[in-house]
Structures are given as structure tokens and as C-alpha cells.
Specification:
Order of helices and strands: EEEEEEEEEEE
Number of strands: 11
Strand content: over 45%
Helix content: under 10%
Mean pLDDT: 95
Distance between the termini: 40 Å
Number of helices: 0
Radius of gyration: 14 Å
Largest sheet: 7 strands, mixed
Low-confidence stretches: none
Length: about 120
Amino acid sequence: QVQLVESGGGLVQPGGSLRLSCAASGRIFQLSAMGWYRQAPGQDRELVASITSGGSPNYANAVKGRFTASMDNSKTVYLQMNSLKPEDTAVYYCNVVLRRLGLSYNYWGQGTQVTVSS
């Protein structure tokens, strides 16, 4: 089993910053990528940012230049969110992709609420 523990969500004013973190533990066999998705009320879950085990990031157009994803050797992924906008309000989910014998396995965190409001 793989466990993901998220932290760092909360309420912030427009233009503010938050940093999310997600620590992975358990049976981490071959880590392929870690990242963040978000889901606003009434909308589908969407990719925010991901980073491969080799350190290559990928960002949604809506957050490019404002959000930065990073990962450390302890299998913790971070999402630094700057210049936050009300439309960034959503539940943010950590995602881990593991690979074994040619197959990919996705694991999800419990989600953390980010609210951007004045």
C-alpha cells in the first residue's frame, strides 16, 4: 500500500501565496511521477502540475508562471502557489504514479482545500 499525506491548504487573499506538500510512504517501488490535481465544485478534476522522477515539470496553462512543483529525495512533492486568484479555489489532490512490469498505478491523497477570497 501507498500512503499520501497532504498539508498546506487554507484560506488566502487574492495575490497571496500558499505551499502544498505531499509525502509518500509505503511500498514505493518505481516512482514515475508525482503531482497535483484540483477539482472545483461542479467541475472535473484537472491536472495542475506534475513532475517526473527525473525532475521534468509539466504545468497547466492556467498556472504557468505562478505555480512551481518540486520533489525531494524523501518522496515529498511540493506545490508553491504564488499570485493566487479566486479561480484557483478548489480541492487539491496529490497524485503519485508508480510503474511495475510495464503497468502504471495511480495513488491519490485525501485532498486539501484551497480557498482564494478577500
